[in-house]
Amino acid sequence: MNVLPAGSAAGAKNTYAGYPTMTTLGAFYSFEVAVRGEPNADTGYLRDIKHIDRAVRETVVPTIATAFGSATAEPAELLASTLPVLDRAIGGGLQSVRWFLSPYYSLEVAMPAAPLPAAPQTEQRAHRVLIRERFDFAAAHRLHVPQHSDDANRATFGKCNNLKGHGHNYQFEPCVSVPIAGANTAASPFTPFTIATLEKLADEIILERFDHKHLNEDTIEFDNRRGGVNPSVENIAHVFFTLLEPHITKAGGTLINLTVWETDRTSATFPA
């Protein structure tokens, strides 16, 4: 994250590597900005992406840069504080901003459903944030339905029906909604559910249980001899969600959904 030099044109370049070029020590963040509205009948544009890029650089980046050296800066609160200003800078229609603090960890804050134009900005701020983090684990499985014939299983699952199973380097990503620290209200008291909470629960509930295991042989959830389900990526997402949800709720969060990647091209999200 490099701050634009004085006099530079924000949004002059929208490059994959970022601009200005990181020639000194910096941080690499990315933002996804969602805007809703009707495209212009002539241009077909909803918003010029250079306009959005410039607005982010002029409103969001300076706020984060100012707080960058603070040990007490709360990322979700920082992001939420920028949304009303960013919404005005892009001309309205802002739905949400997702801040990738790393390729595997992000925060997403949405604009209030019905902001009050005459209300102070503090009353228009979002009160919750979506925390997402990816985790990986290695496991083997075999796709096989005992009620079906061997020929039917081979026809359905192909090589995934291999008698001894096969392995994947899986990834899974819980999406958890939590109160934002600065949005402490009687209706939504702040609960200190942090990324550290999510990592602790993911490790204790999922990773210790399933990492480096043969899912069909070593885990009751996927052992059909003990009432388990076929370890398809869809069923894995369902099982992981079911296991994590009560623990996340107890810790003060709300598990919205959970996505599992079997490969970089095959994934399932529960609930969809």
Describe this structure in words.
It is a single chain. The chain has 272 residues and is of the alpha+beta class. The protein has 2 domains: 97 residues, Tetrahydropterin Synthase, Chain A; 136 residues, 6-pyruvoyl tetrahydropterin synthase/QueD (Tetrahydropterin Synthase, Chain A), CATH 3.30.479.10. The protein is built from 7 helices and 9 strands, in the order E-H-H-E-E-H-E-E-H-E-H-E-H-H-E-E. Strand 8 and strand 9 form a beta hairpin. The longest helix is centred in the N-terminal third of the chain and has 19 residues. The two termini are 34 Å apart.
Low-confidence stretches: 118-123
Helix content range: 25-40%
How many distinct helices?
Answer: 7
The CATH C-level name of the largest domain is Alpha Beta
What is the chain-wise order of helices and strands? EHHEEHEEHEHEHHEE
CATH superfamily of the largest domain: 6-pyruvoyl tetrahydropterin synthase/QueD
Please give the largest β-sheet: 9 strands, mixed
Beta-strand percent range = 15-25%
Shape summary: elongated
Radius of gyration: 23 Å
Average pLDDT taken over every residue: 88
CATH architecture of the largest domain: 2-Layer Sandwich
Structural class: alpha+beta
Q: How many domains, as an integer? A: 2
Number of strands: 9
Please report the distance between the alpha carbons of the first and last residues: 34 Å
Q: Using the coordinates shown, work out and report the CATH topology of the largest domain.
A: Tetrahydropterin Synthase, Chain A
